[in-house]
Amino acid sequence: MLAGAAALGLTSTLAACGGSDDKDSGDSSGPVKLTYWSWAPNMEKVAAIWNKKNPDITVTVSKQASGAEIVSKLITAKKAGNAPDLIQAEYQSLPTLVSNDVLADISQYVKDAKSEFAEGAWKMVTLGTDAVYGVPQDSAPLMFYYREDLFKQHGLSVPKTWTEFAEVARAAKKAAPDAYLTTFSSNDPGLFAGLAQQAGGQWWTVDGGGKWTVGIDDAGTQQVAEFWGGLVQEGVIDNQPMYTPAWNQALNKGTHLAWISAVWAPGVLVSSAPDTKGKWRMAPLPQWKSGDNVTGSWGGSSTGVSSDSKHAEAAAKFARWINTDPEALAALVKYPAVYPAATKGQSGDILTTPEFFSNQADFYTTAAEIAATAAPSAWGPNVQTAYTAFQDGFGSATKAKKEAQFLSALSTMQSKTFDDMKKQGFEVTEA
Amino acid sequence: MTSAPLKGSDRVEVGPLADGTGTAPSVRPSSPRRRGRSAPYWFLAPTLTLFAAFTVIPIGYAVWLSLHKVQVKGIGLGKGARAEVWNGFGNYADVLNNSEFGHSVLRAFGYGLIVIPTMLGLALVFALMLDTPKARSASFARLMIFLPYAVPGIIAALMWGFLYLPAVSPFYYLLDKFGLPEPDLFNGGNLYLSFANIAVWGGTGFNMIVIYTALRAIPQEIYEAARIDGASDLRIALSIKIPIVMPSLVLTFFFSVIATLQVFTEPMALKPLTNNLQSTWSPLMAIYDSAFLKSDIYGASATAVVLALATFVLSFTLLRISDRYTREDRA
Question: What ipTM describes this predicted complex?
Fold first, then answer.
C-alpha cells in the first residue's frame, strides 16, 4: 500500500556502481518512446539514468496515484486502447490487472531474471502460472517496531510470539494506563492481509483445473482475527484507525509503544512521529509458534508491461534493467527510496541505515534476514471488493470492541468476495 | 395587499424597456425574412453541439453501460477472459434490491433534514439582518458570511475533521481543561451533525447572497408605504420581504436538495479518520465504490441513472407543489 513512501531517510552518497549489460541493444529498430505510470516519488530520476545510457529507448515517467485508483485508471485506459507501456503494479493488484487484460505476458523476455529474486517474490509475478506478468520491484516484509526507550522504562521485553505480544500489551496498559501497545486499524486491510499470510492464510488460490478458491475465512486468518478481536475487546489494544492526525500524535507522543509495519516504516515515522528519532528499534514479527520464522508482507510492487504496448520487448528490457541492474537498484534506493526485491539489492552497500534508526546500525541486515522469511501472498482478481468489505465489517467490529464481531466480519468478507466473483462469472469455490 | 404596490412599481421600472423591445418586431415584417429563417438554428448550434457532446451522449453512454455487464470465463486470466454482455435490467434489479444503496439514500435524507432547514434558516436570517437599514458595516459582514463558501469543500472537510478529532482538536483541549463532557463526534447520530455542520458552515454564505440579492431588488417605495402604515422592521420582514423573496428561497431549497442527494466530499474526506463510516455511506459514495474501487462500471452506471431519475422526479414534484403554492398565494 505505502510501498512507494518508503524510507525517506535513505538518501546518502552512493557511488554509482557502474557496469551495465544493456548497452548492446542492437536489434531495436530506431528510437522507441515508452511511457511509464508510477506513483513512486522521483522515479523520473531513475528513468533519466536509463535514458542517458539508452538513446534508442526513451522512457517518460508519468506520476500517478497509487492503490485502487491506478488500477481503475489502467482498466479504463486499456478499454480506450491507450494504456501506458510500463506500469508500476502492486502485487495485490496483479490478478485484477491480468484479468482485465491490462498486463502482457513477458516471460519470453524476462524468464531468466528469475534467479535474481527470492522464490516468493517471483511467485507473485507469475500468479503460479507459466506466464510472467512483471518484474518484482520492491518487497515489504512485516516487522515489529517498538519504542526502545519506553520498553526499557516500563520493563517490557520484545515479544517473540503472539502470546508474549498479548502479555506485553497487558503489561504496557498496566504500566502506562493512557497508552496502548499499538492499535488495530480497520482502515488498513493490507496489514491484516500480511498478518494473515504469516498465519498461513491463503485468501485466493487457483488450482490446475482452472478454478479459484476463496479462503479468506480460513483457519489462519480466523486465528488472526480472533487474536486481535480479543485484545481489542479486552481494551489492551487501541481501536483507532492508522494514518490519521490522532494516530500520528499517538506515535509522536509515545501513547503507542509499538507499530507492526513493513520495511518502509522509517519513511512514515519520519513524518508522523518526528520527535521520536533514534528512539525506535525494529525486530522480527512475533511468531505463532515459538521457533517459527515466518512473516507476511504489507505492500510491494512490480514493473509490468501493458498489453497495449507496441514495444513490449523494449519495455520488458527496461522493466528488467530497473529491477536488477546494480546501478538502477542503487538509484531506486536513493531516489524513490524503495526496498528492492532483487536479492542483490538487499545486501551490500546499496542500503545504508535509515537516519531515523541511527541507533540500529544493522537495520538492513536484519531486514534482509526477515525478508527471506516472507510467506508468499495469494492474491485474487477482486482484492478491492475484499478490502472494502474488510473496512466496513472490521470498522463496526473495532468500534464495538467485540471479538465475536471480528469473526463475523471475516465471514462477511469471505462471502462478499465469493459472491462478487461468482456474479462476475469466475469459476470459483469456497474453501 | 403587498402585491398591488409591487406591480405598480414594476411597471414604472420595466415599462420603457419592454416598450423598446416591443417595437422591434413591429419593424421586422417589412424587411426580407427568407434568409433569416435559419438564423435561430445557427445561434443555437454551438449550445446544441456542446449539449449533445457533453450531456446527451455521456448520459446515453451511461444508460448503455447500465444495460450491460462483464462476463468472466474460467479463471478469468489473460486475453479474452472477459466479455461485455447484454444484461437487460439486471443491474437495475440489483440496485433496487441492494439494501446498502437504499440505506445510503436514507442516510442522505436524514442528513438533508438537518442541513437544509438549518442552512436556509440561517441564510434567510443573515440576509434579513443585513438588509435592515440599521445594519452597520454590512458589506464587511456580508463578505465574512460568504467567505467559507470560497473555501474548497475538501479543504473545509479536512479542516473540520481535524477539529473533530479529540487528540488534535483545540476544542477538546478546552473541554478537557474545564472537565466538560467530550462527545464522540464520529459516533452514530453525531456523525450526521458533524457532516451537517460542515455543509452549513460552507453553504450558508452562498444561499445568503442569493436571498440578499433578491431583497435588494425590492423597491424602497414599498417599505416607505409600509412604514407610513405603521409597520415595524420585524413586521416588514415577515409580511413583505419574506413573501417577495419566496422564489429565491424555493430556488435555494432546490439547490440544497440536490446537493444533499449528492453529498460526497465531507464523508469521503472524513472516512479515513474513523471506523464508523461505511464505504457506501452516501449514494455517491456507493457509486464511487463500485465504479472506481470495484471497477464495476456497469453497476455504477445503473446506480447513477437511478439516482439521477430519483433526483429528477423529486425536483419535479417539489416544483409542482411550490408552483401551486405560489399561484394560490397570488390569487
Answer: 0.82
